[in-house]
Amino acid sequence: MRTQPPFRADHVGSLLRPAALKDARAHLAAADLKAVEDREIIRAIEKQRSVGLLAATDGEFRRAMWHFDFLEHLEGVESFTADHGIAFKGGLETAAKGLRVTGEIGFSTHPMLEHFRFLKENCRDVAAKMTIPSPSVLHFRGGRRAIDPAIYPDMNEFYLDLAEAYRLAVAAFAEAGCRYLQLDEVNLTYLCDEEQRAGLRARGDDPDQLPGIYAAMINHAISGRPPDMAITMHLCRGNFRSSWIASGGYEAVADVLFNQIDADAYFMEYDTDRAGGFEPLRLLPKNKTVVLGLISSKTGDLESEDDIKRRIDAAAKHVDIGQLCLSPQCGFASTEEGNLLTEDQQWAKLARAVEVAHEVWG
After folding, report:
1. Is 63 in contact with 54 (CB distance < 8 Å)?
2. Cα 341 from Cα 302, distance rounded (Å)
3. Confidence class for position 274, pLDDT limits 50, 70, 90
């Protein structure tokens, strides 16, 4: 069994919000809400430990959305009420919120540093895993129109400042004791979808250039991390109330992802045929790991052990099985609304990942 993250059985990060937490967010003032958050996070850590996971997150219980809550606290970034939310398949739409860049991007401190400290203090014998959005998210969502041209007439300066702000953020989390940090990078996966690529071209971006731009930002962001800090990336095609946005296999970005980005491991969505086949895994270097997202966080149906093991065997035809791990394909609640399954079903899926990992890797 692996002793360093990612672990043979792992998970992406977010968990369904308990009813008590949802009620508190709807009715309590901030000071009273924090006490409920603290209590529910401790319970979630204990539950993760009890199902056999070797790493725990805070379930992202203090967040409304997986990305905005981090990005809006960077210097030079502000949130606003948008005309509409992010559109998902099936006519679903997130809360109408957006981000815009109104000043020079920077990082000095962040409320999520304290969130991580609380997590670490309560993890004890399991690794404390922190998740933040990749720097690409601030660009991909709004593009040029969300960035004040008076502040950044040259987009290259924006990319440089954003990468440096992230480098300072990574250093701050390292200073707080974080040794397991995940960058949630959905945008490289969206760049495998022709509908998304067409939308980028229509707004003036070149989808063929963006993978290199995003890779350079990520590499700068993690360039000063401590040698014992594991950096993973999570890739998916959208996750909101069990719906999705993009389709397309990883082939178009696999070389950049595996060979040009200095991450240690990749959590990769593989629960449906929207993710394509395992062939891109042939490009994975020998010193890196892929966590196969074979268990769906979008449905309560529990995957059979035999089906999961069969798919692990299929992936192992393209990469050494020793470089593989297992997890759900995404979080269970990328936004506070959560996916369409119960908490019992969520915990059964995480327990199933542990059971299969023990059988496959010992």
Report:
1. no
2. 11
3. very high
Closest to 299 in 3D by CA, of 354, 358, 244: 244
Q: How confident is the model at residue 231 (pLDDT cuts 50, 70, 90)?
A: very high
For every residue of 18-67, DSSP letters joined together read: PHHHHHHHHH--HHHHHHHHHHHHHHHHHHHHHTT-SEE--TTTT-SBTT
Predicted pLDDT of residue 330: 98
Residue 239 per-residue DSSP state: -
Q: Which two tokens stand for residue 77?
A: 């970034």
Exposure string of 172-186, with b = 16+ CB inside 10 Å and e = fewer, is bbbebebbbbbbbbb
Within 13 Å of residue 106, how many CA atoms lie on the same side as its CB?
8
Q: Where are the alpha helices (DSSP H) in the chain?
A: 19-27, 30-50, 68-71, 111-123, 136-140, 155-175, 187-190, 194-203, 210-221, 254-255, 305-315, 343-361
Burial class, 287, CB count within 10 angstroms (exposed 0-12 / middle 13-18 / buried 19+): exposed
Are 100 and 78 in contact by the 8 Å Cβ rule? The answer is yes
Structural domains of the chain ordered from first start: 19-70+110-361 (3.20.20.210)
What is the distance between the alpha carbons of residues 140 and 204, in angstroms, rounded to a whole number? 12
Q: Residue 107 in 3-state DSSP?
A: coil
Q: Which residues pair with 184 in a beta bridge?
A: 133, 234
Q: In the structure, what pLDDT confidence band is assigned to residue 70 with cuts at 50, 70 and 90? A: very high
- The reported pLDDT for the residue numbered 1 is 60
Q: How high is the pLDDT of residue 31?
A: 86
DSSP-derived pairing of the beta strands 130-133 and 180-184: parallel
Dihedral (Cα; 28, 29, 35, 37), 10-degree rounding: 70
